[in-house]
Design goal:
Helix content is about 35%, strand content about 15%. It is built from twelve helices and twelve strands.
Length: about 300
């Protein structure tokens, strides 16, 4: 036996993937919890050389310190720093970290566009839970689309949304992407211009932009009744300011995760909609793809020390 592998949660890494890991000469120990505690993980990581993080637990400095034999951690998602909070300590110890950058891309983009359609067609007010029977709605056709952050998911949204015939698609990114502009036929806009001119705004920003990047000033720039969609890091948008503009009825918003304040629950769903927990990534195809990528990444790191998805 080459060593022991820790796998958390039950969503990712199915029997076929476990078989691949065992066939490569490793033993598997599963911690079947989606949000294991620090103490549970401190015990679980002892004696493990690899760790596939399949849940939503936080891997702290203390956990990294307890993993004396740990050589590699693979996160089944994109924003690994949100979950491996001890990533700097891991880097100092020489523990390789990899994620699955392309895994959830299509599923999240598909969800974002689904919610843009649902909100703009006023599905909630017109359905059984609502009180409307007939209502003319804008849809996506002829709408001005803004994408804040043109990474993998933002680019995928830019590609998919074209079939709905928007009036225009613009993006803002910290650095311009001229090749993407040509490839996707989208226009670059400074952030104030994008917010001021868009009917639908997709926020595709990671934690790296900093907390409250979209704050009171930015939210006030948005058009009346514009739709804001977010599915990345919860602190990118300043929640207090968002609640205020929603309560005023100025804009509408959708989130892949619930807000911390219970006051959001008092808003009508046609004004604010969120999942009870992050679920935008969760399609059968994407779970299979992410599991394939995570398994191969871990084996690559343990066998050769190199992997395309290595991030440190």
């Amino acid at each position: 036996m080459k060593g022991k592998i820790l796998i958390t949660d039950t969503l990712f890494i199915e029997p076929e993937h476990e078989g691949q890991i065992r066939d490569a000469g490793y033993e598997i120990e599963r911690l079947n919890k989606s949000e294991a505690t620090e103490d549970e993980l401190v015990e679980a990581v002892k004696g493990k050389i690899g760790y596939i993080l399949g849940g939503i637990e936080k891997v702290t400095d203390k956990i990294i310190g307890a993993g004396v034999d740990l050589k590699a951690i693979v996160f089944t998602g994109i924003a690994y720093k949100d979950f491996i909070t001890g990533w700097e300590k891991a880097t100092e110890k020489g523990v390789a970290i990899a994620n699955t950058p392309d895994g959830p891309t299509y599923a999240v983009a598909e969800w974002a566009i689904t919610m843009a359609l649902a909100m703009n067609r006023n599905i909630f007010d017109l359905g059984r839970i609502g009180d409307k029977k007939f209502l003319t709605t804008p849809g996506i056709e002829n709408q001005q689309i803004g994408i804040v952050g043109l990474g993998r998911i933002g680019s995928q949204i830019g590609e998919i949304i074209r079939v709905f015939r928007p009036a225009s698609v613009s993006y803002w990114n910290r650095t311009r992407k001229l090749e993407k502009e040509k490839e996707l036929s989208i226009n670059y806009s400074e952030l104030p211009d994008l917010l001021n001119g868009s009917d639908i705004v997709f926020v595709c920003l990671s934690k790296d932009v900093g907390e409250n990047f979209i704050g009171e000033k930015e939210l006030k720039m948005m058009k009346n009744n514009a739709l804001l969609l977010t599915f990345m890091h919860s602190k990118v948008i300043y929640e207090v300011a968002l609640l205020h503009v929603l309560q005023e009825g100025r804009i509408r918003a959708v989130s892949d995760y619930p807000a911390k304040s219970s006051a959001f629950n008092d808003l009508p769903m046609s004004r604010w909609y969120s999942f009870n927990a992050s679920n935008a990534f969760n399609t059968a195809s994407e779970i299979k793809l992410v599991s394939d990528m995570a398994t191969q990444s871990l084996l690559n790191l343990l066998e050769t020390g190199e992997d395309n998805n290595k991030v440190n």
